[in-house]
Design goal:
alpha/beta; 38% helix; disordered N terminus; single chain; 14 strands
Length: 287
C-alpha cells in the first residue's frame, strides 16, 4: 500500500519532465534553425524549458520557445517564424496530430479550396497552400491580432500567395462580439464566448459565420475547424457551406453528439481520428 501511494505521489514528478524531454527530442529532430543564431536559440530554449518543467513537474503547459527564431521543417519543405516565450514551436511540430495531419492534407490536390477555421500561426494553412498550388485557394480564419500577424509572417516567409487571411472569429451568426478566455501556457487554445455582459473592460472579437465567409466559393474540398470547444456554434452557421464541402475535419471537445448529428444530416459519414477528439466527416464527390 505504501509503495502504491509513493508511486502515485512521484508519478507527476517523473511523467511530465520525461514527456517534455521526449517532445523536445521530436521538435529538434523535425525542426532545425535557419541560421546559427536560430539553432542556438532553439537548443537553448529546449534546455531552459526542460529545466523549467523539472522544477515545475505538476504544471502542465505546452513546450515554450524562450527566444524568437526561424525554423525549417525538413520533411515538409516549409519555414516557420517562432515568437519568443510562446508555444509556436509546438503548434508547428510536424505530424504532432497523427492521422489528423493526413486527413486534412491527403484529399487536397492542385486547384482545390481549403478553409482553415482556427488557423493559428498557419501550420495547416501553409501545407495546404503547397498542396493546392497556384490554381488553388486557401482561406485562413484567425481572430487574434498578434496571431494573425504571425500567420501573415509565416505566409510571407513561405511565399504562399494563394492564401486569403480573414481576421475574424467564427460563430453561428455574423455581427456577433465574442470575449476571449485565455488559458495560461496554451497560446493556441484561446476559447471565445458570447459577450453576455456589456462592459468596456473586456476585449471584444468580431465574428462571422462560415456561410458568409464562404458564399463566393462553389465547392470546398476540405473544411478544417479547430476553435476550442466552439466548433458546434461554427457548424450551425455553415449549413450552406456544408452542402458544397466534401471533407470536414473538426475537433469535438464539447457537443460531440450534436456535431455528429448535424454532419450526418448534411450527408456526411463520420470516422473518429486518433488524435484527441477529432473526427473526419466525408461524402462522395458530387461536383
Amino acid at each position: 500500500m505504501l509503495k502504491k501511494i509513493a508511486r502515485a505521489l512521484l508519478f507527476p514528478f517523473i511523467k511530465y519532465p520525461l514527456l517534455r524531454i521526449l517532445t523536445w527530442g521530436q521538435i529538434l529532430v523535425n525542426l532545425s534553425g535557419i541560421t546559427i543564431k536560430d539553432k542556438s536559440n532553439l537548443y537553448l530554449s529546449a534546455f531552459m524549458d526542460i529545466l523549467w518543467c523539472i522544477s515545475h513537474p505538476r504544471t502542465v503547459q505546452n513546450p515554450i520557445c524562450r527566444f524568437a527564431c526561424q525554423v525549417y521543417a525538413r520533411r515538409l519543405g516549409v519555414r516557420f517564424s517562432i515568437r519568443a516565450n510562446s508555444d509556436d514551436v509546438y503548434s508547428v511540430l510536424p505530424y504532432r496530430e497523427g492521422n489528423v495531419h493526413s486527413a486534412i492534407l491527403n484529399p487536397l490536390s492542385a486547384g482545390d479550396i481549403f478553409v482553415d477555421v482556427g488557423a493559428n500561426v498557419g501550420y495547416y494553412t501553409i501545407l495546404a497552400s503547397k498542396r493546392v498550388g497556384k490554381q488553388g485557394h486557401v482561406i485562413a480564419i484567425e481572430p487574434f491580432p498578434e496571431t494573425v500577424e504571425q500567420l501573415k509572417l509565416n505566409i510571407g516567409v513561405n511565399c504562399a500567395y494563394n492564401i486569403e487571411v480573414i481576421e475574424s472569429a467564427v460563430w453561428s451568426e455574423s455581427n456577433m462580439k465574442l470575449v476571449p478566455k485565455f488559458t495560461k501556457g496554451f497560446w493556441g487554445q484561446v476559447r471565445l464566448e458570447p459577450n453576455v455582459e456589456e462592459t468596456n473592460e473586456k476585449i471584444h472579437v468580431p465574428a462571422k459565420c462560415i456561410d458568409d465567409i464562404c458564399k463566393v466559393y462553389p465547392f470546398i474540398k476540405v473544411l478544417k475547424i479547430d476553435i476550442e470547444a466552439t466548433e458546434y456554434e461554427a457548424l450551425k452557421g455553415a449549413k450552406e457551406t456544408l452542402a458544397k464541402t466534401q471533407f470536414v475535419i473538426t475537433e469535438c471537445n464539447q457537443n460531440r453528439e450534436q456535431i455528429v448529428c448535424l454532419l450526418k444530416e448534411a450527408g456526411f459519414q463520420i470516422q473518429k481520428l486518433n488524435f484527441c477528439t477529432y473526427i473526419l466527416a466525408s461524402k462522395p464527390a458530387q461536383f
